[in-house]
Amino acid sequence: MHRGSTGIALEPHPDRLLPSDPTERSIARRLYESVRDLPLISPHGHVDPALLARDTPFGDPAELLVTPDHYVTRLLHAHGVPLRDLGLRDEDGHTAAPREVWRAFCSHWRFFLGTASRQWLEAELHDVLGVTVHPSAATADALFDEISERLAKPGFRPRELYESFNIAVLATTDDPADDLRHHRALADDPSWRGRVVPTFRPDRYLDATNPGWPAALERLAEASGIDTGSYRGTIAALEQRREFFRRHGATTTDHSAPDARMEFLPEAQASRLFDAVRAGNAAPGEARLLSRHLLGEMARMSSEDGMVLALHTGVERNHHEPTFARYGADTGHDIPLHAEFTQALKPMLRRFGTHPAFQTVLFTLDETVFSRELAPLAGFYPTVYLGAPWWFLDAPRAMRRFRDAVTETAGFHRTAGFIDDTRSFCSIPARHDTARRVDAAHLASLVAEHVLSEDDAHEVLHDLNDRQPRKAFRL
Questions:
Q1: Where is the composition biased (Basic and acidic residues) (predicted)?
Q2: Among 473, 421, 474, residue whose Cα is nearest residue 47
């Protein structure tokens, strides 16, 4: 890195994240080069399908890189930048102008040092947008103008970027009541050659502890045409919407539950609970019991329709109530919790652990369970795959700890590859590149230790970037 006349040069090192040991680095380079240009498979993320259906050009760098990325906004908030100054709209609809958002981001650039976000942002800026100087207070306005001008040129519309990123398949995350019009528009467009599939995300319809649950069921009724005033009607509506999603290419249902526990109650008991909770007459704990049963019903449905059940657990949503009240959900203040899987999943796995049609991918934010619980579960049950380190753990060293923790028990082929889990479209290739470098480094260490051959390492690395995500998510 050197300082030029316009600022400090932005020059991501070609060997970033590869081993420092010369022997291992040489092996890792060869491994990485063999997969660096493979198509990207993104089985779980939060890109809005309207972005590609409408193909509207990005307006400015703040809209592209800052506001949609809660990894970015949460850390800047920790350094005293109000979320409104980062492009988020408060309850009154107020927000900062894009140039002001970008200035706030650039002037706090140094605070990203050492973070995974810094790796992704440097790759986005340099590799995607052609930026050659680091953001700073001094360079903010010039970079804003440079990037804005570039975004208006051919090659930078969303569909063009999708193609340049070499994305093979992109899964979005969608509400069961969504009409999937944007997915249909893409499928019906003869000029579109990509593959974008929806994912069924029914959390709001399963969480009977949420005060908004009755209103959510009304929305489900409107979308399905089935009365959700009863337990049986709600189950029928969920089944109907799953089938609608399947017809539009969905292969996965995605669930973010407080914990992994499921219940399987007799229908009569579930129906009584449903009526009591909906009427506001339930005893303490009954709403949680019903929610766990409804999640269990999702597992039962997966065993019948073959949709993969992806389970993300172990997070306290909306930890800061004042921020939630002002800005809403998914604004950077969700915090990891302790997780437990061995006992929690036993009722589900007793029923479906060896079921030929059932399949689940397990994610957690508690890395202490990787070797103690998740690897042994995936090392026995043919229906269980281990999801990639997710969210707070999708950082290079955490990814490496995941491989160290699970491989000796479960191997590489009981894992599900990599997920980018992002709302920030241009971070997709950067995040996949990070994972490829980390896995190349891990495999190089095993080759250097003569645990496996370099040919084996090449095959594994290709599997982790193609075969495993396709198999685990049935893509």
A1: 12-22
A2: 421
Helix residue ranges, H only, 17-90:
22-35, 49-54, 61, 70-78
Return d(Cα 146, Cα 142) in angstroms, integer.
6
Q: How far apart are CA 340 and CA 392, in angstroms?
A: 18
Measured over the CA atoms of residue 418, residue 176, residue 275 and residue 303, the dihedral's sign is: negative
Of 393, 428, 415, which is closest to residue 461 (Cα–Cα)?
A: 415
Nearest residue to 11 (alpha-carbon basis) of 115, 127, 116 = 127
Q: Which two tokens stand for residue 47?
A: 């890109």
Residues with Cβ within 8 Å of 280's Cβ and at least 6 positions away in sequence, in order, are none
State the Cα–Cα distance between residues 247 and 169, nearest whole angstrom.
17
**Longest CA span, the chain:** 75
Q: Which of 218, 219, 224, 230 is nearest to 274 (CA)?
A: 230
Neighbours of 286 (CB within 10 A): 17
> How many residues does the structure list for the chain?
475
pLDDT in tens, the chain (475 residues): 455 446 899 999 999 999 999 999 999 999 999 999 999 999 999 999 999 999 999 999 999 999 999 999 999 999 999 999 999 998 888 899 999 999 999 999 999 999 999 999 999 999 999 999 999 999 999 999 999 999 999 999 999 999 999 999 999 999 999 999 999 999 999 999 999 999 999 999 999 999 999 999 999 999 999 999 999 999 999 999 999 999 999 999 999 998 999 999 999 999 999 999 999 999 889 999 999 999 999 999 999 999 999 999 989 989 999 999 999 988 999 999 999 999 999 999 999 999 999 999 999 999 999 999 999 999 999 999 999 999 999 999 999 999 999 999 999 999 999 999 999 999 999 999 999 999 999 999 999 999 999 999 999 999 999 999 999 999 9
Please tell me the number of Cα atoms within 13 Å of 369 on its side-chain side: 23
* Close Cβ partners of 235 (under 8 Å, ≥ 6 residues apart): 297
Residues 6+ away with beta carbon under 8 Å from 284 = none
CB 409 within 8 A of CB 376: yes
